[in-house]
Structure formats: C-alpha cells, structure tokens
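Dear Dr. V.,

Thank you for agreeing to look over these. As mentioned in my earlier message, I'm a first-year student in the group and I'm still getting used to reading structure tokens, so any feedback on how I've presented them would be very welcome. I ran two proteins. I've put each sequence directly above its structure. The first is here:
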Amino acid sequence: MPSPPRPQFVEALKDLLERVPTPFYAYDLERVGTQARLYRSAFRGARIFYALKANPRLRLLERLRVRGFGAETVSVGEVLRSYAAGYMPEEVVLNGPVKTPAALAELERSGAPTLVADSAADLERIARILPGAGVLLRLNPDLPVDTHPHLATGRGDSQFGVVPGEWPEVFERGRALGLVMRGLHVHLGSNLNNPADFAARLEVLDRLRERVERLGVLNLGGGFGLGLDPASLAPAMFSQARAYRAELWIEPGRALIADAGVLVARIWAEKRTRRRYLLLDAGMTAFLRPLLYGARHQVLPLYSGGRRAVFDLAGPACESGDVLARDVELPAPRIGDALAFLWAGAYGSAMSFNYLDHPRPGEYAWNGERWEVWRRPESLSALWRDEPDQPEYL
C-alpha cells in the first residue's frame, strides 16, 4: 500500500487551492526523489529508463535525467519530448507495436534512439529506413499475470512482441537485415504487485536461453506495482542478466511518480437519486483510470466537516460512466470544499483528454518551499486552435 501524503504537502495543497483553479494535479517532489533513490539503490549497476507514458511532464524528465535515468518512450512524440528535456538519443528507448514509415523518417531527421522491434514487419521497416539501427527484439512471454486485462501486455493473446517459439528466428532475421541486434526486451504489463509474475517470466527466459547465444542487453521492462519492494526483485533479475552475459535494463514508470501525485477537485453539489452523490468539477476527462481500468483511488478530504456519510463521486460529463469513486466515506461537505484523489501521479494527467471540450487541468509541483508550474491550465481557446477559421480544402 502506498504511503499517505506528507502533512507538509497537504498543507501546501490547501494554500494552492486559494491560488489556482480546480481541478488540478499536484506533485510532491520529495516523494519523487525518495522513489528514484529506492530504484537506483536496488538496481545499482543496471540502466534504468523512466517510462514517459506514466507522466511526461518536461520538468519531471529533467529531474530524472540529472539523477541518471534514461527515457523509455512509446511514440515519436515522446521521443521528441525526451530530447526537449535534454536527453540524447543513446539515452532513450522507443517501444510500441507500430512504427510507421513517417515515424521512422522523423527519427532519421531528429536522431534514432534504441528501437524495440515488436514484429518481423517492424524489423523490415526499420532496416529500410534506419539501416544499421540498434534494436532490441520484444519477447511475448505468453504468461497470465495478476493485473487488469487492459494492462496485461505479456499474455499470449495480446498484440505485443514475438512468442518464445518464434523469437530466435525473428532475431536472426534482424541480423540478416543488417540491424545491430543488441538484445531482448520482455515486459509483462503494468501495475504488477505479485512477485510470482516476475518469477514466472524468469522461468520463460531460462528455457529460451537454450536457443539464444550471448546478448548485449536484457531489458526486463517495468510494471513495478506500488506494493512491491524492488530490492527483493533485483537479485533474480541481475542473475538472469548474468546468465545471458548481458547488461540489465529496466523501465519503471508508475513506481516513481504515482504516489507523489494527487488530483484535486472541488465539490459543487450534493444530491440524491437512488444513490447519494457529490458532483465534482473533475471527471473522466481529467482522470480516466477509474472508468478505463476500474481503478480505486483513496480520497482525502481537504476540509473538515460534520457527520460522516457515504457518497459516490461523479464528474461533470453527460455520461453515466463519469464516476471517479463509489461508496466513499467522507465528512459532510459544503459547496466549494475540495478533496484529493491519491496515487494519481501516474496515468492521471497523461491520459487526460478533451471530450466535451473540457480543458485539461493545470499541474504543479511542490519543492518544499514553493510551487513550480509544470503545465498551465489549458485555455478554452486552445480547444479549437488547430481548426481552420476559414474554409480550407485539399
């Protein structure tokens, strides 16, 4: 279970409430530093690449780069964002199942990171547009894992990677195409809290090793849930890398930022249908995880109230699914009181979107003395900025 927010951070949140509009995301930089040190200590000697998809803010990337973290990306946009934060191509890994010719041509212009090929077709395109590129080939270990189905990327029925029986031949195909085949990438999924899942992956790698010669890199991906102790996992992962005579790489994302962040929203109505609701100014467009994954986030009231009651917390969208939490016990609020959804630092702001023309929230980080602006609240006019103001034809 993640740690509760520090009292100093909660007090700073209450001050920020008086200065910026809700909803907003806020981050405790001390907590980010603690998690970064935890992973660097547990995996001393490995290369650690932060997974941008968890939270891609530039100021966060700059901090992690200074601490020695690389960047793991899953789109050309994320690659260019990491370069904007100061990363060099050799410090970046590009993952993902589809790399279009246009995307690879952009990398030819801007600088190619280490590429994770997801299929034989991926290898063919990379070899044609980026000849001689450095490549890892992704393995699909064909394993069930203890997480939400949408997060289980290492199952044999998912669209990711090459299954173990085909992996050695596809790897050799990459070499025949003239690519620099650096090693193996295997990622089980996201938000894994069962150590048995990590152990099962190593068993698959044990069997594969009989058919694979020495590798330069063994990238074991991320997926580290907040309930895991990385120091308990690291020895077996290092042991597997040594067996392949490879350098160990890992890609934590959520583990570094999730419990450092909160989403703050105000309450604008209390009402009853057959259930008792609090209506908020943040909903699914600001925070998609509850709807998409059935995620449950602890809720912290930023007010003191009267008798406690049980509420559902719903957002402003005209959608019955726009409910961020159900059956939450809270003090009875007044209109305008605020509350915070905890553990929202990962896949919160990164997944926010503009459905129903809702602007995306602002983002701020507490450095112990003052608030840094990580992203300004999106303006209403920005919602139609890319639409021509006059008829336009092709």
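The second protein is here, in the same arrangement:
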Amino acid sequence: MTDYREHMNENLAGGAAARIKKGGARAFKSGGLWIYDNEISRVDGTFEDGDILAVEDFDGYFLGWGFINTASKICIRMLSRKKEQAITPAFLEERVRAAWNYRKKVIDTSSCRVIFGEADFLPGITVDKYEDVLVVESLALGIDRLKPIILDALTRVLAEDGIRVRGIYERSDAKVREKEGLPRTKGFIGDSFDTLVPITENGVRYIVDVENGQKTGFFLDQKENRRAIARLCPGARVLDCFTHTGSFGLNAALAGAAEVTSVDASDLAIEQAAENAKLNGFLPDDTGWLTNEAGTRLQYLCADIFDLLPSLHQKGELYDVVILDPPAFTKSRNSVKAAVRGYREINQRGLRLVRDGGFLATCSCSHFMDPALFRDTIAQAAKDAHKRLRQVEFRTQAADHPILWASEESYYLKFYIFQVIDEK
C-alpha cells in the first residue's frame, strides 16, 4: 500500500465550483451530506467525475467542499463545510482518527465497524475490522479515488494502538455501485491472506468468511442486540429465524437455553452456522442435534421461513423465545408496500408460535421501512394473531454504526423485544 505521509498537505481539490439552484440543497443545509443532480444549476471550471470541487449557493455564498459524479442522482457528496479547510491526506487522516477514537470509547473494538460512511463524514465508504483484517466497501466514485489514502491512514492509526493489519479485502460488489457508473468488484488490496477469519463477539466464537459471506462477512450491527436477548434465554425453548451464520441462536444457546432451533433458507449459511456451533463446544449427538456440556440442544434447519412457520403452528409447536432477523424486504421507496406485507406476515406467523408470556425479538434492517411504519406493521400483525404486546425495549444498530441526525441514510436498523401475551 502506498505511504502518503510525504504528501499529507497536498490539496486534493480542483478549481471548479458547482452552483446550487435557488432553494436547492435543502437536505445538505439541514445537516445532511448529499446534494442531488436536480439541485445544481451549473458547474464553473473544468472537472472530471470523481473530482473534489467547491460548492456555492445560488448567490455565490460558499457552502463547502465535496466530490462530484454527474452519472449519479446523488451528484455531490460533501466532505467539509469550511472554506479554509483544504481537502488533503492530513484532513482525511483526521477524519479516520476521529472515527477510531469514537469506537474506542463506545464499543468492543476487537471486531467492529471502524468507518461508517456519512456518519463519520467520509461519505460512501465503510470499513469493518475483524480482529486484524479490514474489509472495505466503497459505493461512490469520489471516495473510490480517496480509498487508498483512507486505508493507508487507517492502517497507521491502528498501528499506533499496537494493531497490525494482516490484510485488507475489498467487498465493493453491491449492485448500488452501478448507479454511480462503477463496476462491482471484490478482491485483495495488497497481499493475499486466509479469508476465513476467526473472531469472538460477546464471548461467542465465529469464523467470518470475508470473501463470500453476505455484505462484508458478518452483521456487526446486531452485536448489542444479540447480547440483549441472551438474558431471556436461560432454560428457554428458542426459535431463531433467518439465522444466517447462527449468531442470535448461539447467543441464546450459550446463555443457557434448553434448546435452540435455528433456520435459514441458505444451505451455505446453515453449514457455516453449524461450523460456528462446533467452535463453541456443540457436538452432534445420536438424535441429530448438537449438544454442549451444559446440556443445551441445538439444531439447524434449511427451510423457507414463510413456509416453515405455518407448518410449525399447525403442529402445535410453541416457543419461549422467537427471534425474527430477516433480510431487508425493501431497498427502495417503490417496494415499501410489498415490504409491509412481508413484515406483517412474518411477524403474525412468528407471534402465533410464542407461548403465553414468552418473548418475540423482531427487527427490520431496511432504511426505507421507517420506525413509525415498522411499529404500525407489528401492531397490525399482533392484532391479526390475537396477541397483546408488552414492549420490553426498543433498540437500533450497535454504537459502531452511529446514527448521524439529519443524515437519514445512517439510521436503518429497528429492533424490538416484546413480551407476548394471549388475549385475556
């Protein structure tokens, strides 16, 4: 990786300036970091997409520095509002250092999200740390160009705390990159390494597949929510739906559940979850379940949750704790109505499997499923299932995925824990 220390004060901005239409850039002026293509009247000076330029209001008043991409509806992503602030490698290192210092204060940093795009004022890039491995996802052209500087700075900042980065893997393979005119890409940045990375979270051991796992390999955003359900699980019969690599189910099992059934539609996810169970002392017994020394029984099923839940209900199955951690049912405003139907159906079916006085943990990771809509959808599901809900707590994403107020894209995860009561 290139060392940028000799160029720390080199100004990366060009001489062009984008002019905003009168009344435009409302989201940015309210504290956000995005300016849309239909809010720009013109660009003075020469530039290429991906360049950093000045942004001025309709009357020439300086608004800030950002990088431009005319191929994207999010035409400019802002880096700074200060006119005197040159955009240099030193500036980017300052942002990286602030992001790391924040994580050190709020969360266990052995594995965590180190940079969370807009919420860390580095729009379009996320970096996850799995022990001594970094996984980077870049979603914007301008930040793609700055990525080597950011990663170089992060490697050096971590080294100051005695953390030697063993390797960096890129997972910029999300479809959304195509909206920026960028190819989807993945692979090593620098030397290759074993992409099956062992981590420990909440005392639970996992192998994270940073090359082929979903997103960057693991859902770090649920770290604190997994810990929150553990206290409900001693002696409980638990159903863990959409288990992915087994994280909620393993937290329940190691908290002392009597038995845990974890389900996912992916064969690969189930295989990985079973391997993670073995890492945590669960071994096959002669009944086909996995058991540990404490006597907790654990099984993994590969099944479609929407088909499985009504089947379990017909059989009269009941659980003390049901966990619903589905993938995002909507990734755009256009499909929100269909997502509402999906969330209502899955929650209604899950609620019918909770015994009187048991608990439901349910969440949505879709930004477009706003908190009020999600709450109303669960309420309707409870009404349809003839259940009453007593809210235990409402949570969001872990603190290493901070929610930047006025930047709505940084707030996406909604997580409820309810006690479920039969109608009295």
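From my reading of the second output: The mean pLDDT is 95. The CA atoms of residues 125 and 303 lie 34 Å apart. Does that match how you would interpret it?

Kind regards,
E.
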